[in-house]
């Protein structure tokens, strides 16, 4: 196999980092200072040691940021502050909020010590010399280091070809690192070990086609359902990924239990894949954004890319695999139907692969579709977070969902797609999760999985409806209903009716399963009401491919040398995706694409 060649056409780089003017020495009251600032998942606490004239050390002592994604910021921002004696430090790509939290906390410490914060935030710009192009060569270049990109890199390397993996963020993981942490495992040995032997590819196909309202691409769905089981077993046997041993999850969208949880949830999955990518020797280039395809005689023969330090690359390869995810965080690409829906996905989902594929006249389908969920809270304008696992935990006790009129709206343990239909028909597209204390205690246990910290909950409860998101609480039904603006009399009648269903063991209104009618709503407060709004992270439209993951053009012809995997491929899920399906497709398509591409290159 061809070894990766790094030919420096020219290396004329001069310092291009923003550095402080060191001649302007600062003076501090020497000592050790502590402060905290709000990050992605709660407060980030730092300890800063100052001498009279220097920042001696910066240490992050406590945080609840997402493992893997936040690590580069947690390591690099403190080091850059000390090395440069400056607060003029750029945020780390993909960990912007963590970076800003560290900087804000250090600013507070500097202020406590009497330092000039504003002076430390002024950067000295060194003159920059033009960075000329670096040329690289490899067998396969993969653009995007999420679940699809990493599994492709692993399998391609195991097959024996050289791989360069480009990731524009400071760490790999993408949407996979912040997903729900579960996957469909139909047809796997693992599923049988968990006690489910009555599933099949045909049954999964029927369920996903029904869930996607028969809009799914039949060929891609068949490819998915027939191979996802092998992927689950491959993850365990080859990729070093572990699943939790507590068995399969009940999910109403699936006719049989086929969804399993990863050990360590999404973060555990992402870290296992990162470790395996390193072990097999794929070359990973972080903070390097692919910005174009190299085309010769109608074939794609590589990519161009730009690194965070300004270095530009031309990477030639026998094959290019685009695994760049979706475009949920690119408003310019979003259809009108998604413009007003809360976004809670990764910042990296900007449609880079879609844009590159457009440049070679690729064929697209279903670009107007996105996976909308019915269980979001609005934490900032147009920005949401999920309460899906919290809802599931609360409904295992006595949580119910009502409309502004105080009446229950649907089976709380029913399929998300059905609950979504009800939600979208509500005034202001908002429903309300009503809970007694026992249900709310259970609710809180599920929030950490979706990045809502205990500190966040305390803040939301303290606001008590004065600002969003709505986490209303009161000692009586009347009190909490008034805060939320819900009809109290109707809500009380709803509670009484629901408690009757629990006593009888049958939900006559919406058919909530008997195993989730185990506890009546308490006659004593406190009570809680949490808003429920539509949210999305995953776009469902993208390029059209062959079953070998080759991207085709508008004429239906294969674009030589160009492949796709994961969310970039459109049509697999139809207009909706059931639990565990998006991750299953990302990992399955990536695994298969890596192997197919490697076998082609080896046979040439």
Structural notes for this entry:
- By secondary structure, the protein is an alpha+beta fold.
- It contains 17 helices and 26 strands.
- Strands 1, 7, 8, 12, 13, 14, 15, 25 and 26 form a 9-stranded mixed beta sheet that branches. Strands 16, 18, 19, 20, 21, 22 and 23 form a 7-stranded mixed beta sheet that branches. It has a 3-stranded antiparallel beta sheet with strand order 3-4-5.
- Helix 15 (477-484) packs across helix 16 (488-504).
- The protein is globular.
- Residues 1-24 and 125-129 have low confidence and may be disordered.
Question: Which secondary structure elements does this structure contain, and how are they paired or packed?
Answer:
Elements: E1 5-8, E2 18-19, E3 31-38, E4 43-50, E5 55-62, H1 71-84, H2 96-112, H3 117-120, E6 124-125, E7 134-143, H4 147-159, E8 163-167, E9 182-184, H5 189-193, H6 201-211, H7 218-237, E10 243-249, E11 259-262, H8 265-280, E12 283-286, E13 288-296, E14 299-307, E15 312-322, H9 336-339, E16 342-343, H10 352-358, E17 364-365, E18 370-380, E19 383-386, H11 388-395, E20 400-402, H12 416-424, E21 431-436, H13 437-445, H14 454-463, E22 471-474, H15 477-484, H16 488-504, E23 527-539, E24 542-543, E25 550-552, E26 558-564, H17 581-603
Parallel strand pairs: 7-8, 7-15, 8-12, 15-26, 16-23
Antiparallel strand pairs: 1-7, 2-6, 3-4, 4-5, 9-11, 10-11, 13-14, 14-15, 17-24, 18-19, 18-23, 20-21, 21-23, 22-23, 25-26
Helix pairs in contact: 1-2, 4-8, 4-17, 6-7, 7-17, 11-13, 15-16
